[in-house]
Write a structure and sequence with these properties.
This protein is an alpha/beta fold. Helix content is about 60%, strand content about 5%. Strand 2 (about 30-35), helix 2 (about 40-50) and strand 3 (about 50-55) form a beta-alpha-beta unit. Residues about 85-95 have low confidence and may be disordered.
């Protein structure tokens, strides 16, 4: 065993990558000190392998970290799987991207059912962070301050990820809205928008394809398919609302100026026409287009 006699310290070991690595280290002979803020998850982990010791540790607290390090002893292997998410929704004009990436990171590591799914989520996170940078550069180019405090009006970004199904629907439907933004920017007379449009479109296409890939896996069992169907309305309603009001006074101006090619309702109807076939491929019943809508 390659880690026989060595001590490994793993943070965020209660779930996801941290948990998988803690067990892998123990199987290779290491004495593992596994830490997390989820006491129940740690208790479950400790029962799985005799080589795993557990201790509550909050990486946001210096004293807690020092206590864990002291309890672990002479550490040879350190895996810090914890993500200290200090981002707050609405902090800045680009906070929407940061906040979304933080939520995906947390949910992806906690709920991803296998290694390939984790790899997909890691790539999506990388791309979301890059989108925030794109937004910042565009705002600066327009003479705007990207750090000005603005509330996030897109409530879809505040809906909780309770499990893997929620995250899969988020990618399949909410990220799909971003795909239409990229397509719209492709013909913009404003060169910075036109320049980034192809990469943005490709990224969002990857996100929505990944979401439907996850959903197809879940739908392989009757129980999974029923759970996916039950969660569809929640995300479908939020996705349609992301296009804004049909009677928006600014939307026609954006079309006139070439920033957009279609108004809000035209884009929404295009989205519905193109997303419904993907939903039906899963064997699901389409959601109600009007139920629970806030912006019509």
């Amino acid at each position: 065993m390659r880690l026989a006699g060595k001590i490994a310290l793993v943070t965020a070991a209660g779930a996801g990558i941290g948990r998988a690595c803690a067990l892998a280290f123990a199987r290779e002979g290491a004495q593992v000190m596994a830490t997390d803020i989820d006491d129940a998850a740690l208790a479950t982990l400790a029962r799985e392998h005799a080589g795993v010791r557990t201790m509550r540790c909050d990486v946001r607290d210096d004293a807690s970290v020092r206590a864990a390090a002291a309890a672990a002893g002479d550490v040879s292997v350190l895996l810090n799987a914890a993500a200290q998410l200090l981002l707050k929704a609405g902090t800045t004009a680009i906070g929407e991207f940061e906040y979304t990436a933080g939520n995906i990171l947390d949910a992806g590591l906690r709920y991803a059912p296998h290694g390939r799914a984790m790899e997909i989520e890691a790539e999506i996170i990388r791309q979301e962070v890059a989108h925030g940078k794109i937004c910042e550069e565009v705002l600066i180019g327009l003479g705007a301050n990207p750090n000005i405090t603005k509330p996030i009006k897109q409530y879809a970004f505040h809906l909780p990820f309770d499990d893997w199904i929620d995250l899969a629907w988020f990618h399949a439907l909410i990220d799909r809205v971003g795909l239409y933004v990229g397509v719209e920017w492709a013909g913009s007379p404003y060169e910075p928008l036109a320049r980034v449009a192809p990469d943005l479109e490709a990224d969002e296409e990857f996100h929505t394809r990944s979401g439907f890939l996850h959903l197809r896996e879940i739908c392989q069992t009757p129980e999974g398919k029923a759970a996916v169907q039950a969660r569809l309305q929640k995300w479908w309603t939020a996705a349609l609302d992301m296009f804004g009001r049909s009677n928006s006074v600014t939307s026609p101006l954006y079309v006139k100026w070439g920033i957009k090619q279609h108004d809000n309702e035209q884009l929404r109807q295009k989205y519905i026409r193109e997303a419904l076939p993907e939903i039906r491929k899963l064997g699901l019943t389409p959601a109600d287009n009007d139920l629970g809508r806030r912006f019509t």
